Amino acid sequence: MKKPIVIGNWKMYVEKPDAVKAFVMKLKRRPQLLSKTDVVVAPPYTLLPALAQVLGTTKTIRTGAQTVSAFLEAKHTGEVSARMLKVFGIGFVIVGHSERRAAGEKDDMIREQIKRTHEAGMTAVLCIGEVERDPHGAHFGVIERQLLQALKDKTTGKLIVAYEPVWAIGKTAGSAEKPAEIQEMVIFIRKTLADILGREQGVKVPILYGGSVEGSNAKELLTDGGVGGFLVGHASADIDSFIEILTALA
Ligand code: PEP
């Protein structure tokens, strides 16, 4: 069986380089956990140098960015390009997170971000998720549309899909989506990916779940939800709660 992928999205929870160092030093002391999961940490841009420094040659913790510019280079004040991320050894880029969609990022931009990520040889972690759960199933249409729009170019680059129902984000374990419903959605996403990318490529894409994953629900969500791992927000920014999740999955 494949190792579960656990991507920590630190958002703006972690602010200082010292906190990054303390986090990584503690995580490095748990090699048995790191050997059982594929761990990726995605700090804010400002902490990438500190993260790169403390990781050194460590291969068991990989690094991600929380977003990337849709542009290639030059005249774009405030943007950070895929090439610039590569300099810090970034391997994964989260695109289309619901908090960025809510801030105005549209499908066309998300598609460009995926393109830039792939041109730089990194893995795109495409976030999709409905804002509300519809009792008549309209949320499946939302997910299908998000996938169709983001993957219109039929990318052949490395891809992970993170299914994150927006209504389940940022709460506590009891508010996460139920495993049976996650499983139903995973099957739907898998079929949609196969329709868009072709069966051979579609079956290879890991599908993660995100939304109030904590140590207490991680194991059940993994085994009964049929996912390949998790995108974790609040519980990834505190080393003890992150270790609880890794321990539950080990
Ligand atoms: C997220 O925003 O990607 C996320 C999964 O957040 P949380 O774990 O806090 O629900």
What is the count of β-strands? 8
Strand content: 5-15%
> What is the CATH topology assignment?
TIM Barrel
N-to-C order of helices and strands: EHHEHEHEHHEHEHHEHEH
With strands numbered from the N-terminus, the spatial order across the biggest sheet is 7-6-5-4-3-2-1-8
Indicate how many domains the architecture comprises: 1
Q: Mind telling me the C-alpha Rg?
A: 17 Å
Output the number of helix runs. 11
List low-pLDDT spans: none
What's the pLDDT, averaged over the residues?
A: 97
Biggest sheet statistics: 8 strands, parallel
What would you note in describing this structure?
The chain is α/β, with parallel strands linked by helices and 250 residues long. The chain has a single domain (7-30, 79-249), classed as Alpha-Beta Barrel (TIM Barrel). It has helices spanning 17-28, 31-34, 48-55, 82-87, 98-102, 107-119, 138-150, 179-197, 199-202, 218-225, 239-249; strands at residues 5-9, 38-42, 61-65, 92-95, 123-128, 159-163, 207-209, 229-232. Helix 1 (17-28) packs parallel to helix 3 (48-55). Residues 9, 164, 169-170, 210-213, 231-235 line the site of phosphoenolpyruvate.
Detail the topology: elements first, then pairings.
Elements: E1 5-9, H1 17-28, H2 31-34, E2 38-42, H3 48-55, E3 61-65, H4 82-87, E4 92-95, H5 98-102, H6 107-119, E5 123-128, H7 138-150, E6 159-163, H8 179-197, H9 199-202, E7 207-209, H10 218-225, E8 229-232, H11 239-249
Parallel strand pairs: 1-2, 1-8, 2-3, 3-4, 4-5, 5-6, 6-7
Bound molecules: phosphoenolpyruvate.
